[in-house]
Amino acid sequence: MRAIRIAGLGLVAFLLASCSGQTDVEGAARAAGTAGTTTAPAVPAATVAFAPSDQLSPKDPIVVKASGGTLQAVKVVNPQTGNSVAGDLSPDKTTWTSSDHLRYGATYQVVATAVNQAGMPTEQRGEVHTLKPAGVATPSLFQPASGDFGVGLVIGLKFDHDIADKATVEKSFKVTSSPEQDGGWYWVNKHEVHFRPKDYWKAGSTVKLETTTFGMPIGGGLYGGPDVSATYKVHDSWIAKADGKTHQITAYHNGQLVKTAPISMGKTADTPPRGPTPTFNGTHTVLAKVDHTIMDSCTYGVCEGDPGYYKAPENWDVRISNDGEFMHENLKTVGVQGSDNVSNGCLNMNTENAKWFFDNFNVGDVVEVTNSGGPQLAIDNGHGDWAISWSDWQAGSALRG
Description:
Elements: E1 12-14, H1 25-35, E2 47-51, E3 63-67, E4 69-78, E5 83-84, E6 87-89, E7 95-98, E8 107-116, E9 121-129, E10 135-137, E11 139-141, E12 146-149, E13 155-159, H2 166-171, E14 173-178, E15 183-187, E16 192-197, E17 206-211, E18 222-224, E19 229-234, E20 238-243, E21 248-253, E22 256-262, E23 282-285, E24 288-296, E25 311-319, E26 326-329, E27 347-349, H3 351-360, E28 366-370, H4 390-395
Parallel strand pairs: 10-18, 12-19, 20-28, 26-27
Antiparallel strand pairs: 1-2, 2-3, 3-7, 4-5, 4-8, 6-7, 8-9, 11-13, 13-16, 14-17, 15-16, 17-19, 20-21, 21-22, 23-28, 24-25, 25-26
Pathway: Cell wall biogenesis; peptidoglycan biosynthesis
Keywords: Acyltransferase, Cell shape, Cell wall biogenesis/degradation, Lipoprotein, Peptidoglycan synthesis, Signal, Transferase
GO cellular component, one term: extracellular region
């Protein structure tokens, strides 16, 4: 039997019995009449249809249907990869539906066999073509796909293309939390979007993020890439409050004060050679920590041979911004910790206090900095999301514009 390529988006039936050697009913009846006997009419052959067959979204399934019989076998293969496509047969064996995600711009070869009520098989061959977009915008997670985080957890997505239709894309995101909490999306730029609740997450929350942009047109000829999902656990509440005026840091565990320590923040005086290096004001969150590292001023442009260059080992380092701000031990400033701000932006402590914060504060835990004399922490400088007011955060949603 020759292969037939399916065209069009509708359900196109292919009648396959016309050339399959069915009985000539009228001729048989005439012959039977001559002999004084009658013959029952032949059972019509089953027919098979594929729907749809052309420009199929890879998010939608390939559907194979049988009429006048049941499906005996269905095989769908992507000849470009050699991979078979899995599918499920309906209880009445008249419909087969693919269960795998398809690929963009692919041709799938379909071979289906149906049998009629008399058990006569009919085979149908054809092709199904998925749409080929101008480009595919693939999302990646702003945080790992799972993990244990503090109440300052910020989640989100980065796309590898700029998004033209942000509102459509945003509608396709789903964030659920247990217990339920009010939250919203904020577009950092044309390809990155963050989500946070109005207030810090409640301790013990479970937060789940899912995308459904795959196969979706998202503007500018782009379609969504493979979907991603993540589940986050929120541990106990750990919040530190660092005050540049009192030169003290206080720590709260589930709302209870558990630690007070003297600190030295970034200097605000125009001290050569670098000038003022104040700590950023606003809510920071812990990004990472390491028990020992080498801090090198060349990372911000003051390199060996320049005035003010340093390259020094530091212990109990808790990173709170991308701009090189840490809570850490600094024995050189112990004499002014609690009375003066002299650091290059970090929160300096003695060994005992630095070790305590290192042991107790983890990724997503909160460090609120006030009275530092510095500018507000920016959203792209770690997790400056919390430094944005809730009304401004809501205005950053594509659905509020």
